[in-house]
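Researcher: For the annotation table, I need structure tokens for CRP-like protein Clp. Please keep the output clean. Sequence:
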Amino acid sequence: MSQSDVVDLARLRRSCAHCSLQELCLPAGITGEELAELDSIMRRRRPLNRNERLFHHGDALNCVFVAREGAFKTISISREGDETVVGFHMPGELIGLDALGDGHHRCEAIALVDSSVCEIPFDRLTEIASHIPGLQFQLMRVIGQSVSRDQDHMAMLLRRQAHERLAMFLMGLRERLEILGQRSDVFRLPMSREDIAAYLGLALETVSRAFGRLQDDGIIHVHGRSIEVLNADALDACAHGEQTPPSAGRRCGSRTQG
């Protein structure tokens, strides 16, 4: 391996340490030249202010995006103009996969806080992926993770108890943070409670009571948007409507929604 290969690999690892595509640096057979080719199509650090839209409903699929800093929500808009939160995107996750079907975005992406993204021209990405097997595999894996999150969202909406929906949402965030190599026991929610309520199909007051119940049960500690998970096993049990461990002291499904 040449010196230039080593430099390319190290630089790409540093610049994409928390990216959903970072595993491209790891598989055998990915050369420094191929990494440089991938790196060359990236348009880095497009900044967005809080509440700024990354793309609009109906926009053509020109790029996919990786959230580099900050966080985003995706919303769908009905013909009547009603907005529904359909997803959240954390640092390192791909945004824009909704347009893979017909080439146009079916939702809008909005920055929850001041954020930045890496832009990846879709035509160049597919071209490069056709001759870099590691990239092709990782793209399929990331798309699969996105589908899994959509399925988890549907499962949340089927939960009868509000605190179970919230517990499942928090467990999903924990798992995503762990994948990205970040702390999952203490974290800050980038989204508002109004956004969480819209995502979970609940009233704002119901979500606030659900946070209070999980805190009263000793499962989490809430301070503003900061969440500390005190009992991960109890949170997981609550998310699945199961009896919580004795340390939590209650059965999550034993009371009516509140």
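Researcher: And a one-line annotation?
Model: The helical segments are 3-15, 32-41, 122-129, 133-158, 162-179, 193-200, 204-216, 232-239.
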